[in-house]
Amino acid sequence: MSASSTADVPYVAKTKVGRFTNFVDERVGGSGILREFGRKVFPDHWSFMFGEVALYSFVILLLSGTFLTFFFDPSMAETHYQGSYTPLYNVEMSVAYNSSLNISFDVRGGLFMRQVHHWSALLFVASLSVHMLRVFFTGAFRKPREMNWVVGGVLLILAMAAGFTGYSLPDDLLSGNGLRIIDGVIKSIPVIGTYISFFLFGGEFPGTAIIGRLYVLHILLVPAIILLMIVIHLFMVVVHKHTQYPGPGRNDGNVVGYPLGPVYAAKAGGFFFIVFGVIALMAAAFTINPIWNYGPYDPSPVSAGTQPDWYIGFVDGALRLMPGVVNDFHFEYIVFGHTLTLNVLLPALVPAGILFTVLFTYPWIERWITKDDREHHVLDRPRNAPTRTAIGVAGFTWYCVMWAAAGSDLIATHFHVALNDVTYWLRALFFLGPILAFIVTKRVALALQRKDREIALHGRETGRIVRLPHGEFIEVHAPLDEYKRYRLVGFESLAPLPAVPNEHGVVTRSEKRRAALSKWFFEDRVAPASPAELEAAHAHGHHEAIEAGADQKSLTH
Amino acid sequence: MKALSQKRRHPLAAVALLLMGLLLTGGLYAIATTVNQAKAETTSFSASDAEEGKKLFEANCATCHGMGASGTKDGPSLVGVGAAAVDFQVGTGRMPMQMNGPQAQKKPQQFNEEQTRQLAAYVASLGPGPSIPEEHLLDEKGDAAAGGELFRVNCAMCHNAAAAGGALTRGKFAPALGDVTGKHIYEAMVTGPQNMPVFNDANISPEGKRDIITFLKKIEANGSPGGADLGSLGPVSEGLFVWVAGLGVIIAFTIWLTSRTS
Amino acid sequence: MGNHSDGSPNPSGAVATAGQEEVEKFQDPGLPPHRLRLADTDPKAAKRAERQVAILFGISVIGTVVFLIAYFAIDLGNDSSIATIRTQNLLLGLGTAFAMLGIGTGIVHWAKALMPDHEVSEERHAIRTEDDRKAAVRIVDDIIEETGIKRRPLIRNSLIGALLLAPLPALAVFGDLGPRPDRKLAHTMWAPQDGKLKRLTRDPDGTPIKASDVTIGSAFHVIPEGLNELHEGKLNEKAKAVVLLMRLNPESLNPSPGRENWGYNGIVAYSKICTHVGCPVALYEQQTHHLLCPCHQSTFDLTQECKVIFGPASRPLPQLPIAVDAEGYLVATSDFKEPVGPSYWERDEHERLINS
């Protein structure tokens, strides 16, 4: 792009910042990095911004979290509240809860910081999830980005861990009951469960150690690993360069977009302030985690509507959906004198296990089915990969069913239905939902592909109805220009790849299985329109699509 | 300030009610002016009240509750439920019931205060039961913090820690407690309407109940310190909000940010 | 419209495309021609955009000032009302939001309207070259070869063994995080102390309950006598010992053999800790006699000794045997006959221990 720096005449800085850059470079070097990055090209699309939202939320989490550590005291010692919130005056509570109340009511801006911290935590995990959905549905995880997809998955788990450890810190009734549920789940683990529980809580639940331990994890260990993972993630983004949507002038060999300096850097930098502003707006006007309502943790009370933050919701929902007793069959039984409690163990581990296993291995699964070993830098539009899109929506539906189950009591009260019926329906949807979602999504994707073909061949519907001299009514179609058309036809349509013998001339069983999956994956598809078809369409629709535009003048009245 | 105005409202309302009652029944009662006198009048009924109440009962309630309120298969016996139960059920519009369902729903009152009073007088005359609470227990001047503790232990599991309500089994639910008068809250505790357990005076003392009402009215008057409370429903509404509103606004910004300027 | 051609097998093992090699494809027309913005052609529009950016930055300044005023002018004294806190929070938030959004939207508007908006195309370079790959793989092969790890399985296997064992101390060193689980989970505070039966007392104030206090339809939240006087481990004991006390018509109860005298005149006490994952099961429906857990909706039927009738719990709630002492107060005649709360691996062992 810019070869000016290699000119024979020494380049003299024109701006002050340029001169400063020169000064720094003469002392510490680094001009190579700037040369590499200064004009690096980034493609521009709104769906590419979610990773940035996550990154910026994380920065805001670090900033607001640091403020909170100055006032928070993670001790579980007993004290009596003497602060300014009268409905809790003189109530016995832990020092941790006491200091959280003080942050909320007696530190100026403390409540705001708490709300900023919690809203950005929710937004962090939400934007991370949407970012991963975008990567999945556009096929951006394909070679060479499989490893970065895995790093992203690790970040998702770490974000959930950071969120959960933070959720528990104020030691309020809500989070305390959350911890109790975690304790119950841990105790259900065979052989070592009770030990893990005793080690985690420093003895019996709730003990006096857990808040301090979670605090260290929350402010040190987990954020440090997240930071490390972010560095690795961004490093790989730089190595791979960003993907881009298909379109005219874009292919696997180039990257089209705006240079980092100044346009992209300005947009990305400005976007940080926008994300911060949006979070500040939420924290200004909307209460989050009103710990003063819940009261201090006490093992006896509980509040209706006790739920975890949204990102743990799907596990909680799975716990709710699992029946403990079916007819007279109990999911808890005695094995060699020991208690095995599958009604807790199965829902706590299996759905999350399946979800994350599929998530981590999906790039390799698809690569094995398609035998596609090429590098991909141009994304798939989701409709052009119908089976993958359908798999993604099926998985997302499954997640959403469990998610909804975590709010089954609120669904019941707000839609005036019976709690038990909500559970029965969601139990059915747990199995049927993904299947229905798969079928519907695949059909929708294929229909959209057909619509693309239609538009590419016959032009865009204009909504103008014209009556021809012989009485026929037609709708005028406006032909596309070649750039818009290429957007609709410039994709590759993969076909099933039958089983191929290996080097010994044997078709292995796994190869047969792969071929069957390949057939399932690519069987239904709509090929992109070809120039020949366009030609044919023109000839056929001569009087319709092409001439209509010209005829129109004489027909208007 | 609000607590003060509410305190003032109650005795005056009782006086006004009394005046109305006097005009209607044509009795000769002295006009009560002090709080104590007003209280005394609201908790004791005249024979004519019970007489009028009996007529109202036979016309409106006996279909389900039976003649003499002895109960039928459609409605329980009301002998011994006390005036508090009637004042709660009729005063909140739950009775007469609109239709059979998982539980009687709150709705606009079907009887005016005078009629409610007469019905209560009639039912109270059938057998001893909890009476309508005295004014000084409803003055909202108890210990809010102590009330909060009692509320969390005894009430929050059904009604939610912020009194936003919650689900029970098979379509039943514990209602939200905002906008419910202190008198009705008190009456609900002593009578245990429908599936709510009874909290008699040996379980939660009258002062404890006064504290609970003080707590509820206090948090209602306070509102949420952090801004809109999103229904006080906890993490579910917060999660929904961040996905819909938070991400929605951010997506709007990203679309603007990546669009081309004209 | 669907093209259902099989696609001929591709001998090279590469991907099969739907016969598009044979069919001519549309040619990439290249980048669309650049379209100029208003501000590129009209100096007035450029000037206007410049002013707009400056106004946005100005809004940011106002936001910062609002924040500072809200911080310093609103005093959170000891007597501050909730409304004051709400106002301050709102103003601090709006100040921050405007300060940030002003800068953010200003910069973005500047970039969009005034900075060059030519899309450029940059070549992707291969992440590595084929030569590099060959050389690197050969180096790794050589290194592995020179260590001789393949030829000397003894070294390899003993190394693997050592490496597998080495992390054990790192695990073991956490052994003092907590005590090893003993039989604590099997017992609660309800066990009679020195032959004296524990009274049932009200949560939270700890006053004893008379049988006559418990009228039909009542639900009492109960803690053991002496819990509030504990100095250490109060919450730990409370977490196991909380009980829900209810009275219903004695005819509605159907006690199983051996449990006939665990209640008193229709008064029964059940552990409040859910057998699923330990939430307090405190929602008592006095007409249906159902107990509901608000966390995961396990429902227990009081008339069938708290058998699970809905939801994820698998075991009935443990019952606390109660009686009345000479003064008419309710007492627990013994500890629970099984461990309370969620199941754990050693639970059955503990249950046998209790009943032996």
Give your account of this protein's structure.
The complex is a heterotrimer of chains A (557), B (262) and C (356). Chain A is mainly alpha-helical. Chain A has 20 helices and ten strands. Among the domains of chain A are: 4-37, no CATH class; 41-247 and 256-313, Cytochrome Bc1 Complex, Chain C, CATH 1.20.810. A two-stranded antiparallel sheet of chain A has the order 1-4. In chain A, a hairpin with a 2-residue loop joins strand 5 and strand 6 (329-330). In chain A, helix 6 runs antiparallel to helix 13 (342-370) and helix 16 packs across helix 17. Chain B has three domains: 1-42; 45-132, Orthogonal Bundle (Cytochrome Bc1 Complex, Chain D, domain 2), CATH 1.10.760.10; 141-223, Cytochrome Bc1 Complex, Chain D, domain 2 (Orthogonal Bundle), CATH 1.10.760.10. Chain B has eleven helices and two strands. Chain B has helices at residues 2-25, 35-43, 47-60, 62-65, 82-91, 113-126, 144-154, 156-159, 182-191, 206-222, 235-258, and strands at 166-167, 173-174. In chain B, strand 1 (166-167) and strand 2 form a beta hairpin. The longest helix of chain B has 24 residues, at 2-25. Chain C is of the alpha+beta class. In chain C, 34% of the residues lie in helices and 13% in strands. Chain C contains eight helices and twelve strands. Chain C has helices at residues 38-41, 43-73, 82-113, 130-147, 153-165, 167-172, 234-241, 347-355, and strands at residues 120-123, 198-202, 219-224, 243-247, 267-271, 283-285, 290-292, 299-301, 307-310, 319-320, 322-324, 330-332. Chain C is extended. The chains are: A mainly alpha (557), B mainly alpha (262), C alpha+beta (356). Chains A and C meet through helix 5, helix 7, helix 8, strand 4 and helix 10 of A and helix 3, strand 1, helix 7 and helix 8 of C.
Keywords:
heterotrimer, A: 557 residues, Cytochrome Bc1 Complex, Chain C, two-stranded antiparallel sheet, 20 helices, 10 strands, 7% strand, disordered C terminus, B: 262 residues, mainly alpha, Cytochrome Bc1 Complex, Chain D, domain 2, 3 domains, 11 helices
